[in-house]
Amino acid sequence: MGHRSPRNGPGAVLAAIGPFVAYHPLMFYRPGAEAHGLPHDPLKACVAPRPIGWISTVSADGRVNLAPYSFFNMFASSPPVIGYCSNGRTPFGAKDTVSNIEATGQFVYSMATWDLREAMNESSAPVAPDVDEFQYAGLEAAPSTLVKPPRVAASPIAFECELHQVVELPSTNPDARNVLVLGKVVGVHISDDVLNEGLVDLTRVKPIARLGYRDYAVVEKVFSMNPPRVGS
Prior knowledge:
By secondary structure, the protein is mainly beta. Helices cover 10% and strands 38% of the residues.
């Protein structure tokens, strides 16, 4: 069972608040080794917000698939590389997204936005492999330029990708893979509607992100900071 550190113990966080110092008691537990003692697993809520990788693929025999993944991010910019992690399996077996990418070497990321939140959620349903999630979620598919998988037509931003690497991660279930899929971005689509003086205006895009539990966040306010200069 997880435990809480004493007020002035080694696990307490020392925080400076103006001229004052305060100790924040912490709970501590070892994932997989002891229970956290909370009503729900807190782990995902502690790494948030997480961008949503809305990934479309096409199988070797031409079946279209679309699914959202909350373990997603950009890992490099030169060349641009994005990646997502697939955990577990569906009632029908291995997840189609991973299988399709391994078979064809291609996928497309479409940005999930506030306006598309319900359709994004619908596309996460564990349907059979022969079900087209675009149709299931009431979404129009737009053709890509360089790869076969289509993009979500209503999404203002989409990346066409070619597979770079599949990394097998540890899994506590021998029948379910935890897989990190990395792809090189070979094409970028940006709607003119979300550009403001040549910059992508995320307050126009309103991307949504995953939090913990059943919670999401939406970007409606941004702020800027200049990086510090040293020796000037």
